[in-house]
Write a structure and sequence with these properties.
Blueprint (H helix, E strand, L loop, with lengths): L1 E9 L4 E9 L3 E6 L10 E4 L4 E4 L1 E6 L18 H14 L3 H17 L2 E8 L7 H12 L3 E6 L7 H14 L5 E3 L1 E3 L7 H10 L5 E5 L3 H11 L3 H7 L8 E4 L5 H8 L4 E4 L1 H6 L7 H6 L4 E3 L8 H16 L7 H19 L14 E4 L12 H9 L7 E4 L2 E5 L2 E2 L2 H7 L2 H13 L3
Parallel strand pairs: 1-4, 1-5, 6-7, 7-8, 8-9, 10-11, 11-12, 12-13, 13-14
Antiparallel strand pairs: 1-2, 2-3, 5-15, 15-16, 16-17, 17-18
Helix pairs in contact: 2-3, 2-14, 2-15
Length: about 425
């Protein structure tokens, strides 16, 4: 067992100015230092006033995209489809299971340094069968992160293999570290025939699907079927409870009202939306329509703190009103992500209290104004998020990062091989230029 002492403890619900946390894989006891009773058989970790918070969740990622950094391909897109054609679909089509594994290693290393301890990933690769096993082997097996995985079903792939990979992985992986969803790319890359296949084969696995990221997606749905995307998916009974509806930039009010009764969660990715010039999600409309919202990175920065900042600031800009979306709304998005993961993995995550998982971050922070339960999130958001780098990261009570360095020796060893594998991918791509 270990005990953290002299910590400012904040879990988005409760705040303790100077407290202790006794834990093993799970948290055993929490309280103020005035109630702490030392024990000789417990490892003591003195936080010296540092902040203790739960680990972050990245709610929508494309881990394989980490190998795209610096890649020079002919690239002059005029719209979202051309971004896919000229960059991402070229890249992912060349990914083998071995390359998928090492992309998982590289991404996990960065996630941990940024305090992300759980990731929901949307994977795509040329080699389909076994890809999720290789990805989870890296992220959850080597890096010890909790991971929720799926494969991006699309007509550009062998659809039967996509179905098999999604369904078999989800059914065979139900641990407190690894789970599966059913992945779909977007309506514009899915024929009616494919949607019918998915409907027949996937009876109960929730979706992880891109929806209305670009207006082109909605336009395509109307041209194919005469209805919007959500109505199109609903015709095939695809929108199952607990599904993740990702992006939603161009969803209509009618679609939001239909989704409200489907027990789904919206996942916004504002940084990526800006980068792709597709518009910004109307986060306040999602919330006003009773839809829970979570935040992802869409494969860009590994820093979730910056993603939460961008959600707030871009919403102010989009609505031209500085209080249209507020800190309380962002706080609820963080809580929603913990609830979603807790329900999916059948664990307790996101609070620092007895029985919860010991997925914890140590953050250096000096509050120059009073910090208490009423303003702790404001301190965290404005005081630590702009330059967020956790000193220590623990998952299940074990150190993964200590004093700003990854201490998982197996992860470090595998990480040192990643450059060789990314270079191999680049050479393959350049041969086709």
């Amino acid at each position: 067992m270990k005990v953290i002492i002299n910590a400012r403890i904040y879990d988005y619900v409760n705040y303790i100015e100077c407290g202790y946390v006794l834990f093993d894989k799970k948290i055993i006891k929490v309280g103020p230092m005035s109630q702490y009773k030392p024990s000789s058989d417990v490892e003591v970790i003195d936080f010296e006033g540092d902040l203790l918070i739960p680990g972050f969740v990245c709610n929508h990622a494309h881990i394989y995209s980490i190998f795209a950094r610096g890649l020079a391909l002919p690239f002059n897109p005029k719209n979202f489809q051309e971004i896919l054609d000229q960059m991402w679909w070229k890249l992912d089509s060349k990914l083998t299971n071995e390359l998928t594994y090492y992309s998982g290693i590289a991404a996990s290393y960065e996630f941990l340094l940024n305090g992300v301890t759980t990731v929901i990933d949307h994977h795509a690769s040329g080699e389909i069968i076994g890809s999720l096993t290789n990805l989870s082997k890296a992220v959850s097996g080597v890096a010890n992160m909790r991971g929720l995985y799926c494969f991006e079903t699309s007509d550009r792939y062998n659809v039967d293999e996509c179905l098999k990979e999604n369904i078999s992985f989800a059914k065979e992986n139900k641990t407190d570290r690894v789970r599966g969803l059913f992945g779909m790319h977007a309506s514009m890359s899915l024929s009616d025939e494919t949607l019918m296949k998915i409907s027949k084969e996937n009876k109960d696995i929730p979706l992880h699907v891109h929806v209305a990221e670009s207006k082109m997606d909605e336009d395509d749905s109307y041209s194919r079927s005469g209805v919007n995307i959500i109505e199109r998916f609903n015709k095939f009974n695809l929108i199952k409870p607990h599904s993740l509806i990702v992006h939603g930039v161009h969803l209509s009010e009618n679609e939001l009202k239909l989704l409200k009764d489907k027990d789904v969660v919206m996942v916004v990715n504002t940084t990526s939306n800006m980068n792709n010039a597709v518009g910004l999600p109307c986060v306040k409309s999602y919330l006003d329509n009773g839809l829970p919202v979570m935040v992802g990175n869409d494969g860009l920065s590994s820093n979730m703190a910056s993603e939460y900042m961008n959600v707030l600031y871009t919403s102010h800009l989009k609505n031209e009103e500085p209080t249209k979306l507020n800190l309380g709304d962002v706080l609820n998005m963080i809580k929603t992500s913990y609830k979603y993961i807790s329900d999916t993995f059948d664990i307790k995550l996101g609070e620092i209290k007895e029985g919860y998982e010991a997925d914890l971050l140590r953050v250096k922070y000096t509050p120059f104004t009073k910090m208490d339960a009423s303003n702790a999130f404001g301190h965290l958001f404005y005081g630590t998020f702009p330059n967020f780098k956790p000193r220590d990261v623990l998952i299940g009570g074990d150190y993964q990062v200590k004093n700003y360095k990854v201490v998982n020796e197996k992860l470090v060893g595998e990480f040192n091989k990643c450059t060789k594998y990314s270079q191999r991918l680049w050479e393959t791509l350049k041969e086709e230029k």
